[in-house]
């Protein structure tokens, strides 16, 4: 595999996805839990609620937090690409460190 190429089926993470990885438990999860409880959300609609709250929280974050997320997004995506080039078998936890 050449530098810059990815294994089939991989894509770069979006900033909102990295934001979710970093801040879901502390900032998004309480809002989601309240919304699900208050509105009696069906199980098949929970993912939609999570995505909506995650997007809303990210949009309303300070520029400082958004910059942190952007830097982490670049780092994670670079590590994912390099992981495919080197051919090592690494876990998600190792890649996202």
Write a concise synopsis of the structure shown:
The chain is an all-alpha fold. It has 4 helices and no strands. It is 69% helix and 0% strand.
Per DSSP E runs of 2 or more residues, the count of β-strands stands at 0
Q: In percent, how much strand structure appears in the residues?
A: under 5%
Radius of gyration: 16 Å
Provide the helix percentage: 55-70%
What's the helix-strand series? HHHH
The rough form would be described as globular
- What kind of sheet is the major sheet? none
**Structural class from helices and strands?**
mainly alpha
Rounded mean pLDDT is 84
Residue windows where pLDDT falls under 50 for at least 5 positions: none
Number of helices: 4
Tally of individual domains: 1
Q: State the end-to-end distance.
A: 24 Å
């Amino acid at each position: 595999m050449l530098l810059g190429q990815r294994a089939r089926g991989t894509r770069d993470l979006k900033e909102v996805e990295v934001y979710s990885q970093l801040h879901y438990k502390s900032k998004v999860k309480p809002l989601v839990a309240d919304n699900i409880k208050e509105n009696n959300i069906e199980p098949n609609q929970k993912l939609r609620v999570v995505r909506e709250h995650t997007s809303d929280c990210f949009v309303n974050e300070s520029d400082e937090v958004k910059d942190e997320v952007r830097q982490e997004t670049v780092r994670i995506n670079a590590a994912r690409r390099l992981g495919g080039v080197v051919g090592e078998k690494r876990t998600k936890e190792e890649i996202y460190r």
